[in-house]
């Protein structure tokens, strides 16, 4: 699962390389020749957490912004590793960063796009993370995390702190199958099975008295919501079949997690 998303105003053919300078393209500018590279006296760099999700496993967003507060246009580079960023836990271990895929660092398309930042203009890059890391990817622990961002070629850095609390609600996906979770009465369990390439049966609870399905809260197919209703234990499960079933010989897959519900 990809750990971050970005939106660019132009598409550039990526080249995966190492040990060489990145491919650089220049965006059209209304200033004739491309202005000089932005300096720390012209621009400010910031990082802001849009909102810390109150559900473990839900997407959270961080916006990196580069603002030109001067009266002169300047240039900056964007690409898969620009802005560059890392998110580290209290032990200094990186749990998310630039060129991140499947829970860890991955080869990066090696190109940059030169852009012009007009006087008073702001470039923003909104990043999304699902609070997972590692191989296989798992929910990270609650705690304090340090987010750092920078732009190659600019002597600027932006830091912000992200605090993940021990949320009452939990979101799980296929990689969490077989795990056990503890919920308190009234908390929600969301099962997210989108994008697996399989056709899933409805996720069902083995004990609706303890963990009851809330179909009215299911936003789309393959997302199922349950509420912890009373102390006890339950298992939620579903079977995913290949779309070509039964003609093809691909195996079906079982998803399940077990849940203990405690009094609030």
In short:
This protein has 264 residues and is an all-beta fold. The chain has no helices and 24 strands. The protein folds into 2 domains: 23-164, Intracellular proteinase inhibitor BsuPI (Immunoglobulin-like), CATH 2.60.40; 169-262, Sandwich (Immunoglobulin-like), CATH 2.60.40.2020.
Name of the CATH superfamily of the largest domain: Intracellular proteinase inhibitor BsuPI
| Number of beta strands | 24
| Count of discrete structural domains | 2
In helices, the fraction of residues equals under 10%
Low-confidence stretches: 1-20
Anisotropy-based shape: elongated
Outline the secondary-structure elements.
Layout: E1 23-26, E2 43-51, E3 55-56, E4 60-68, E5 74-78, E6 84-88, E7 94-97, E8 100-101, E9 104-105, E10 111-117, E11 122-129, E12 132-133, E13 138-139, E14 143-150, E15 157-164, E16 169-173, E17 180-184, E18 188-192, E19 198-200, E20 204-205, E21 211-213, E22 223-228, E23 232-242, E24 253-262
Parallel strand pairs: 1-10, 3-16, 16-18, 17-24
Antiparallel strand pairs: 2-4, 4-11, 5-10, 6-7, 6-14, 8-9, 12-13, 14-15, 18-22, 19-23, 20-23, 21-22, 23-24
